[in-house]
Amino acid sequence: MKFAVIVFPGSNCDIDCYKAVEEAIGQEVDYVWHTATDLSAYDAILVPGGFSYGDYLRCGAIARFAPVMAEVVKAAEQGKYVLGICNGFQILTEAGLLPGALLRNSGLKFLCHQAPLEVVNNETAFTNQYAKGEIVNIPIAHGEGNYFCDEETLAKLEANNQIVFRYAQGSNPNGSLSDIAGICNERGNVVGMMPHPERAINQLLGSEGGKRMFTSILNAWREQHGAAVNS
Ligand SMILES: NC(=O)CC[C@H](N)C(=O)O
């Protein structure tokens, strides 16, 4: 299985994502610069965190016009796995691949700490190795992680089981609507989340709560391609 980690000017979690793929699942992974116009070689696309183009406008609002984004949209339409983490989540909402928007944190401060998350949907390609309702610790690091959408969109997200993670145990750090920490598209092959699973793949980093997101993706890909699950 082959992963692409998209790199924008200002990305700062690209190396963490690359290392997480190597360390957690030992699969092939390339950095792909924002000017790239072909992602056909890849099975999964990671859109990492950071401050793309400085985030001088709304976070992700410039990045979504990068040449590579047309390819990310194409990959999503083809059913490939697309995971947007933090700034990556913001970029995917700006690109229209996921509904809603990320607003300034309600406390107006950049927040950087471990966050307990509830796995709400464990049926996605990104969460199949977790139990439903399981609480995992995955760190957050953002200034604009306050998820918002209109009532109709929220009702749709709930009805289609598109809420993947919620901030658990009354811990909502940023004012996010319905405690939402991560969502998927209707088809389930695109996930966006504010917490950083790539920073939680080894106890040495403070938590390995994010590691199974990577094993989940590999597991889903192998099932889709008829390979034995743990081979
Ligand atoms: N770690 C990140 O990706 C940060 C995303 C964005 N720049 C924010 O502060 O919300």
Subunit organisation of the chains: single chain
- CATH homologous superfamily (4th level) name: Class I glutamine amidotransferase (GATase) domain
The radius of gyration computed from the alpha-carbon positions, rounded to a whole number of angstroms, is 16 Å
CATH topology label:
Rossmann fold
Poorly predicted segments: none
In CATH, what is the class? Alpha Beta
CATH architecture: 3-Layer(aba) Sandwich
Strand content: 25-35%
Query: What's the total helix number?
Result: 5
Helix coverage percent: 10-25%
Count of distinct strands: 11
Morphology call: globular
User: How far do the termini sit from each other?
Assistant: 12 Å
Please give a structural write-up:
- It comes from Paenibacillus protaetiae.
- Pfam families: GATase_5.
- The protein is α/β, with parallel strands linked by helices.
- The protein has one domain: Class I glutamine amidotransferase (GATase) domain (Rossmann fold, 3-Layer(aba) Sandwich), CATH 3.40.50.880.
- It is 23% helix and 25% strand.
- The strands form 2 sheets. Strands 2-1-3-4-11-10-9-6-7 form a 9-stranded mixed sheet, sandwiched between helices. Strands 5-8 form a two-stranded antiparallel ribbon.
- Strand 3, helix 2 and strand 4 form a beta-alpha-beta unit.
- The longest helix has 14 residues, at 211-224.
- It is globular, with a radius of gyration of 16 Å.
- The model has no long low-confidence stretch (mean pLDDT 96).
Topology:
Elements: E1 2-7, H1 14-25, E2 28-33, E3 44-47, H2 67-77, E4 81-85, H3 87-94, E5 101-103, E6 111-119, E7 135-142, E8 146-148, H4 151-159, E9 163-167, E10 180-184, E11 190-193, H5 211-224
Parallel strand pairs: 1-2, 1-3, 3-4, 4-11
Antiparallel strand pairs: 5-8, 6-7, 6-9, 9-10, 10-11
Bound molecules: glutamine.
Catalytic activity: N(2)-formyl-N(1)-(5-phospho-beta-D-ribosyl)glycinamide + L-glutamine + ATP + H2O = 2-formamido-N(1)-(5-O-phospho-beta-D-ribosyl)acetamidine + L-glutamate + ADP + phosphate + H(+); L-glutamine + H2O = L-glutamate + NH4(+)
GO molecular function: ATP binding; glutaminase activity; phosphoribosylformylglycinamidine synthase activity
EC number: 6.3.5.3, 3.5.1.2
